[in-house]
Write a structure and sequence with these properties.
Elements (H helix, E strand, L loop, with lengths): L2 H6 L4 E5 L3 E6 L2 E6 L4 E9 L2 E9 L4 E5 L2 E4 L10 H13 L1 E13 L8 E12 L12 E6 L3 H10 L3 E2 L2 H5 L1 H5 L3
Parallel strand pairs: 4-9, 6-11
Antiparallel strand pairs: 1-2, 2-3, 4-5, 4-7, 5-6, 5-10, 8-9
């Protein structure tokens, strides 16, 4: 048994609890988890050669961040146990103003597994229809960007050059740009 596996067998201790996150310690590891078993849904929404992206100010980063649409699953009273597809459909419409005829579940992923136990379900939205302006809830102030896929690497580079943040999930969309050909 390796040292991390031995530490995993130690008791987990919550050192701080909030409404949405908890700070925990297990052995020498300090990490953060979502409270109340809340998870997240992240949506890849592509249609007609364009991808829907959102920007919003993120307090932990102290700057605006470019992201794929996303939101919490089961965070509101009465939504405990909510399916990821249902939460993703709600968040896509709320943030971008688009609805999807179908949500395809692409699996569960972890964004920063050495520091955060949170996972997100990645979904692909199919057959989009614009029904409103989007922009999120009254507290979110989200700006929607509809970007040509062929122009996404330049859009992201320009965004980053302007001093803004970029969510790592965009790397999923631009994987070929990073990997290239051997």
């Amino acid at each position: 048994m390796s040292i991390p596996e031995e530490e995993a067998a130690l008791p987990e201790r919550t050192v701080w609890e909030g409404k949405y996150i908890n700070a925990k310690v297990r052995g020498r590891w300090e990490y953060v988890s979502r409270a109340r078993n809340i998870r997240a849904a992240a949506i890849i929404a592509i249609q007609d050669g364009h991808i829907l992206l959102v920007e919003q100010y993120r307090i932990p980063l102290g700057k605006r961040c470019l992201e794929i649409p996303a939101g919490l699953i089961g965070d509101d009273d009465g939504l405990e146990g909510e399916p990821a597809e249902k939460a993703a459909a709600r968040e896509l419409e709320e943030e971008t103003g688009y609805i999807a005829a179908r949500m395809e579940n692409l699996g569960e992923f972890y964004s920063s597994p050495g520091m955060v136990s949170e996972s997100f379900t990645l979904l692909r939205a199919h057959n989009l229809t614009k029904v409103s302006q989007g922009g999120g809830t009254e507290n979110e102030n989200i700006t929607v960007h509809r970007v040509k896929l062929a122009e996404l690497p330049k859009f992201v580079a320009d965004w980053r050059a302007s001093g803004h943040a970029v969510d790592v999930k965009l790397a999923i969309i631009m994987a070929q740009e990073f990997i290239g050909e051997e």
